[in-house]
Amino acid sequence: MAEIELKRCPCCYGTAEFVEDFDDHGRFVAVACTRCGMGSGKHYPLMDDARPNAANEWNRRPDLDMTVLVDGVMDLFPGADRQALTCLAQLAEKAVRRG
């Protein structure tokens, strides 16, 4: 079976992994961040593998776009230095990616 790719956590940029567990409804599969614990909903397999559904839910969000962040700050603080904010955003993104 092909490996299923999971995006990094949208909160802390930590790595994500599949979690399989049991509850009152039976066995379920979810995706959870290994750093902060944020997770997807529970997916209960009937006959098929539930991991693709859990991965689709986890991955269903836009990628981090620092230009949107900088634009938002510029809207809030019109006198801010765009070049400095862009540099800070790039440094923050690198730091988060390194973990």
From TrEMBL:
Pfam families: Lar_restr_allev. This is Lar family restriction alleviation protein. It comes from Starkeya nomas.
